[in-house]
Structures are given as structure tokens and as C-alpha cells.
TrEMBL record:
Principal EC category: hydrolase
InterPro entries: NAD-cap_RNA_hydrolase_NudC, NADH_PPase-like_N, NudC-like_C, NUDIX_hydrolase-like_dom_sf, NUDIX_hydrolase_CS, NUDIX_hydrolase_dom, Znr_NADH_PPase
Biased composition regions of type Polar residues, renumbered to the chain: 59-74
One Pfam family matching this protein: Zn_ribbon_NUD
NAD found in the keyword field: yes
UniProt-recorded name of the protein: NAD(+) diphosphatase
Region (Disordered), start-end ranges: 58-82
Family: Belongs to the Nudix hydrolase family. NudC subfamily.
Superkingdom as given in the UniProt entry: Bacteria
Length: 319
């Protein structure tokens, strides 16, 4: 790392900006109904009036061309299955999700020239979904993934089972209860306080794909300290003026992306972390604007997709 600086000190050169709207996967309208998760009678009523979202093993649901997640009526004559999870309710309609196993292309997959529902994941469908559907599908994907990975008690190894409408797993052997886990990660847009921003790429990404920098929060670390550490580790520069921008659930499989902006000196050499960052460059505001106007690609780089908070951050800075 080049010069040392206190990342919490304001440099006086920071350009303040805010997200232009909530990130695509941060939108939601349903009431999660946490108080009734242990009330069997209330859950039975929500099941009887419910709508069911099927999510396949790749985290995809059937989505209409207009951006609506297709649901089916819950089987009212059947008891609530253990694998069904309550996502919430709206206008006394309960919304539930379950895992289904389908062929690789999905039971309703269609050709590119046909019109109809497609099995899509949140990266594909997220920006197109309504606020209600974005919240429902984001919750469903993350919660079902947690169930898939939490079948056994980490204390005694006994198989666990779902309770409280899918929001808890219980171990009958050691009586432990386990809850859905969220792993916090920071994502930071580093700019120079004027008209340049740092874009970087990981070696595993598709050719030309660039984004802002991100990393997972470590045990005992604050969000702001993680921002400063990750930037120093990934591109070798010091930052100041760390400011919170917003957050977005990122259920791949269970992250929460917490967005920040920070300022760095463009005269400092960018030193990409070996094996983690393939390349990093200062990019001008007009280049980012051009890429946004051209559907995400211009000047030899491609920006992150519209479902990500990174896209929202770059859009806000560019504006």
C-alpha cells in the first residue's frame, strides 16, 4: 500500500452522491408476518388463502415477460408440507415457496423467439420484477438455499427439521434451534472526488467485465474497517471519506451487500492483488456514462448487471 491515511477522516474533496433508488433486490412490499410463524392456526389460514412460488435447484422461478413471478394456488386440501416456507402476506394472501427439481432447462423453458414464461434467476429477472415479486423471490431463493445446506445439526450431527414456517430448523437430539444466516459483505465505489472511478475485474469473470470492489467482513471487524482493508488488499491504495450508500440482499447463497463510497488519490499506483484482481483502472465519468447508455458495454469494458447494487452505485455516481 502507498501512503497511510485514516479512512474515517474527511479529505474535503469528496463529492457527495446518493443512490437514485433502491437496488433491484432491496424492494419488497409484503409483511413478513414474523409474529405468526409459531401459530399453527394462523399459518393454516395463510396456507388456505395462499399462493405458491416454485424455485428450482438453480434458484430460478417461472417469470412472465412482464416481470411477474408466476404462482399457483396452494393445495388447500393438503396439510402444509414441511418444505414450504412462508415469505409473508399481502392483503391477507399468504405467499409461500418450495423447492422443486426440474430438468436443466426447466419445464417451461422456451426458445429465444417465443413469447411466454421463462425459468430465470434473480440476476436475469431481478431488474424486471415488481417490488412485490422482487422481495418474494429474493427471500425465497435465500431461505430455500439455507434449508438445502442446513439439514444436519452442527452441534451433534443429527438431522434437523424445519419449524416456524420454515424460519427455524430444530434438532430433536440436542434441542438446538438454528436460524437462517446472512454473511455481510462490503462493496465500495472508489473515486477521486472529481471525475474518475476505479473499476476492477476478477480473473474468473467473463472477458471485459469490470465492477467496483467488494469483500466479506471478517470476525471482529466493523463495516468501515472492512472497506479500508479490502481496498488496500485488492488494489494497494489508501482511502478516506468512507460513506454509506445503501444495501442489498444478495442470496448467492446468503450475502448482504453493504454499499459504500470512498475517496482515493488517482496519483497512487493501483496494485492488483495477485490471484484475486486481474486488472484495475481509473475510468472517467463520461466513459461510465457511455457504458450505461449503451446497455452496459463501451470503451472495452462491461459494467455489472442491473440486478446488482454495484450497477446502482455506478449509475448514481455517473449521474
Amino acid at each position: 500500500m502507498n501512503r497511510q491515511a485514516d479512512p474515517f477522516v474527511t479529505s474535503g474533496v469528496a463529492e457527495h452522491f446518493a443512490l437514485l433508488g433502491p437496488p433491484a433486490l432491496s424492494r419488497s412490499t409484503v409483511d413478513r408476518r414474523e409474529p405468526v410463524r409459531g401459530d399453527d392456526a394462523a399459518l393454516d389460514r395463510l396456507w388456505a388463502s395462499g399462493r405458491l412460488i416454485d424455485v428450482d435447484q438453480q434458484g430460478r422461478a417461472s417469470v412472465s415477460p412482464s416481470g411477474t413471478v408466476l404462482t399457483s394456488a396452494t393445495p388447500r386440501d393438503e396439510p402444509r408440507p414441511e418444505g414450504a416456507v412462508l415469505l409473508g402476506a399481502e392483503d391477507e394472501v399468504g405467499y409461500w415457496a418450495r423447492r422443486v427439481v426440474v430438468e436443466a432447462d426447466g419445464p417451461e423453458e422456451i426458445g429465444p423467439q417465443e413469447i411466454g414464461p421463462r425459468w430465470q434467476d434473480l440476476r436475469q429477472a431481478g431488474p424486471l420484477l415488481t417490488d412485490t415479486d422482487a422481495g418474494l423471490l429474493t427471500t425465497a431463493v435465500g431461505l430455500l438455499a439455507w434449508h438445502d445446506q442446513s439439514g444436519f445439526c452442527p452441534f451433534c450431527g443429527t438431522r434437523t427439521h424445519a419449524v416456524r414456517a420454515g424460519w427455524t430448523r430444530h434438532c430433536d437430539e440436542c434441542r438446538q434451534e438454528h436460524y437462517p444466516r446472512t454473511d455481510p459483505a462490503v462493496i465500495c465505489l472508489v473515486h477521486d472526488g472529481a471525475d474518475q472511478v476505479v473499476l476492477a475485474r476478477q480473473p474468473t469473470w467473463p472477458p471485459g467485465r469490470y465492477s467496483v470492489l467488494a469483500g466479506f467482513v471478517e470476525m471482529g471487524e466493523s463495516l468501515e474497517a472492512c472497506v479500508a482493508r479490502e481496498i488496500a488488499e485488492e488494489i494497494g491504495v489508501s482511502i478516506s471519506d468512507i460513506r454509506y450508500l445503501g444495501s442489498q440482499p444478495w442470496p448467492f447463497p446468503r450475502s448482504l451487500m453493504v454499499g459504500f463510497a470512498a475517496v482515493a488519490d488517482p496519483s497512487d499506483e493501483l496494485i492488483p492483488a495477485d490471484g484475486e484482481i486481474e486488472a484495475a483502472h481509473w475510468v472517467s465519468r463520461h466513459q461510465v456514462r457511455d457504458a450505461l447508455a449503451e446497455g452496459g458495454t463501451a470503451h472495452g469494458f462491461t459494467l455489472p448487471g442491473a440486478a446488482s447494487i454495484a450497477h446502482r452505485m455506478l449509475e448514481a455516481w455517473a449521474s
